[in-house]
Design a protein that fits this description.
four-stranded antiparallel beta sheet, 8% helix, mainly beta, 2 helices, four-stranded mixed beta sheet
């Protein structure tokens, strides 16, 4: 099953945090090209320890297409199942959150969490949330 969402924005708060010049934070690679008196031809602001404000710089297009799930099953024909002493035999598998196509540079444009707060005010704010996991399920149904 495919799902999609088109034409909405996400604030990439994780990117903003990784562009702060705080000693205990990792830095984004693009910070190598930040503004300096010797590098004025850049769109990356100067390194500033105190600049913790979210700006439109971190607003990104959140449009995406997601392969949400794949369901596969195989049911042994009745006569084959009965030949091994069963009424029925079925193998199945389900895979959730298979793939995401997006230009959003964060983990997942559908994430809307602000440091653990789940409120209407934090929708479309990606700030410290974990991305969705890939879930794989296998099973067997046996009828006696």
């Amino acid at each position: 099953m495919f799902t999609y969402k088109y034409g909405f924005d996400v604030i990439n708060g994780n990117k903003q945090e990784c562009m702060l010049m705080v000693a205990n934070f990792n830095q984004m690679g693009e910070m190598r090209d930040h503004w300096t008196p010797y590098n004025t031809e850049t769109d990356i602001p100067r390194a500033d320890y105190q600049d913790r404000n979210l700006t439109s710089r971190f607003v990104e297009d959140g449009s995406f297409i997601r392969l949400q799930s794949i369901n596969l099953s195989y049911k042994l024909p009745s006569d084959a199942a009965q030949s091994i002493g069963l009424n029925s035999f079925q193998l199945y598998s389900n895979i959730d959150n298979v793939f995401l196509w997006t230009k959003y540079t964060g983990f997942d444009p559908e994430v809307s969490v602000a440091r653990g707060q789940r409120a209407i005010t934090s929708q479309n704010l990606d700030y410290g949330a974990y991305p969705r996991t890939l879930n794989v399920t296998f099973g067997v149904k046996i009828g006696f």
